[in-house]
Amino acid sequence: MPRRVVALGRSCLECRRRKVKCDRSLPCAYCVRTKIQCTCPHPKPDKNVDHVDRDLVARSFPFRLAPSPPLGSIHPPSAVIAFIWQTYLDVVDPVIKVFHVPTVQRQVLSVIQRRSNLDAPTECLMFAIYYSTVVTMSGVECRSELHEGKTVLLRRYRTGVEHALGQANFLRSLDMTVLQAFVLYLICGRRDENGPDVSMLVGLAIGTAMRMGLHCDGASLGLSPFEVEMRRRLWWQIYTLDVRMAEDHSSEPSILESTFNTELPSNVGDAGLNPDMSKLPQVQPGRTEMTFTLVRMMFSERFCNNNSYPVLSEAHKCKVIDQFKEYIEKQYLSDCDKDVSIDFITLASTRLILVTLKLAVCRPQKGRIQGKSRRANYLSACEGVLRHAQTLRRYEKGERWLWLFQTYVEWDALAYLLLSLCMVPSEEPSDAAWNDPDIYRDRRWIHVELRSQALTVRDRMRTTRQMPQGTQPDPSWVLVNAAATAAAHSVTEDVPSSTAELPGAGTICEWSAALFGQYWEMAEPRQGPSASWL
């Protein structure tokens, strides 16, 4: 009988998922009886440590740069503000619903017409709108529309956001508008390589949100329906950002499932909301301007590493994914029109996430003998992931929203597909056509450690087999090269290509050491049946 230890008074994840009483030992009696792995949630951080951490962050906080210069001089002219606001409505708001556009539009129009002096919260929000809009624009667009380089504009508006937050006393502020500005700054700042340290600052957003009580659903606090909805939107944007940062750094989210009861926002567009409403409108299934954001929030809630999902078996995970897909398709996606650009992006991105989740579930495990059919299925799944990604990124009508996906590169699928192209069994000659000359001179491949092995195999195939000159490239190479191209798209025009790094979870060394190391370890030649898959 395994030694059981006390789990510090917290129920295990499986008992929480099944809503059964847990004896709070490790392993608990229920998990021992049902013969499943017992996993306890991470302990809550010590309050004193949190206080010390907050003081340390406060002393090094970039928004406490003092004294702040007058910000009026770095606001753009009225005509530029109008252009930026319209671009924000077209490019940012459809995929990041943080605030109520009609309410904010009245403030923006007041700024454009210079009718009154800006209060600190509104100034924070204005600079966050300037900054987030420029992040989404290309260098060419910045020069043609705003008549300045993108790097210059980003630096100016980044400085404006930080100083405005400092003047609003962000660390102690409980103002919703200030927090909305900060969250918008962090979400879009992930796409700015000189932007904020989101991994550090997201904790401040979480702490501020909790001090404001956003983790408690506003309906239970007797707040107005409009305020309830705005609080839900903001809380779930923070929650989703927390999950994204945890994924980027292979860590656990900071927000525990048990620490909040805030419901997901309603699938209601801005036109259906107003500050004077006495009740929320009846929510109908189908596509609204909130659908894209809502579906992303639902993914974060359902599949993050901090809920009960990780303790499920492989078969159960696949079932959960299939059930979720069926629900999403029926509730939201069935009414999307592929001829409408944002609907196409919603459909394509949702299906890409679903196939990526399935890929993660079916990933080959170290030490497990992999049959040929399983290897073939996994390889096919990798190609499917890259194919979905290619469909999304090649949709020209939706190009304005692709900035949101720049930090998402399907490394797992790319690595495994490259590995399969490198490992050509001598007893199974390949008919692949290795005739894509751009591979040799494409700087993107410098960043991929499997490049040299892949090219060695390619050269060997060309030497040993006479390939017709007009043979089409192998589809696998087309997919792999497209994935590398997608990685390079996040490099801004103002950054020399020789110093640019691919986006993703940390630096190239960080992700490659873990990801490629895992696959190479699995592919290491062994004696016995498992060696046949190389």
From TrEMBL:
GO terms for biological process: DNA-templated transcription; positive regulation of metabolic process. It is found in: Nucleus. GO terms for molecular function: DNA binding; DNA-binding transcription factor activity, RNA polymerase II-specific; zinc ion binding. Keywords: DNA-binding, Metal-binding, Nucleus, Transcription, Transcription regulation. Residues 11-39 form the Zn(2)-C6 fungal-type domain. One of its GO terms (cellular component) is nucleus. Signal peptide: none annotated. This is Fungal-specific transcription factor domain-containing protein. The lineage of its organism: Eukaryota, Fungi, Dikarya, Ascomycota, Pezizomycotina.
